[in-house]
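Researcher: Hi, I'm a grad student and pretty new to this. My advisor asked me to get structures for two proteins we've been looking at. I'm not sure of the right format, so I'll just paste the first sequence and hope you can take it from there.
Model: That works fine. Here's the first sequence with its structure tokens right after it:
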Amino acid sequence: MTEKKITIGYIEKCDGSLRLNLLKNKLFQKSQFILVIQSNSKDFSKFMIYPLNVNKILKITVSNVKEIVKELEQFYSILKDFNIIHNTGLTVRKDIFVVEIYLNLRFSDSKYKDLKTSLDKIKNKYIDIDIEEISLNI
């Protein structure tokens, strides 16, 4: 699955040791943590930074999508009831369509079981769905 990844996500503590001006931004002043999503290309790296007050979230990667419209409509209809932090949008990696979604949800949350059941129903030979929990970088 590594070659299909669009981004790398990790969580950091939002404290004085982080040397970025964004900590002066009101959006981040009340946050305990930040989610850093890093997208790398040959020539540059792009960072998206989101305030968080939880130390774990879920990242869902959907790949190998053949019937793009039908499969993605089903996928997004499942996610409509969840708090989406970041969506990479549809990207092509090595001739495979990939989308990554970061959710404000943990494996231990009661809603995770419902999410997993719904995603398992659309997972088939045409679509791969991987779920990983991202936790505080220690």
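Researcher: Oh nice, that was easy. Here's the second one.
Model: And its structure:
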Amino acid sequence: MTIRLVKWKSGEITATMFMQMLELKKNTFYKIMKEYEEIK
């Protein structure tokens, strides 16, 4: 996931593409990203 996260943060892939790669719905994706940023 971290390589994909870097690509998303740098703009290489869109959030929609990232969600599809992880097979997550929008709400779940942003919830996980929020939790990740808080512990980072």
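Researcher: Is there anything I should tell my advisor about the second?
Model: You could mention this: The helical segments are 2-10, 15-22, 26-39.
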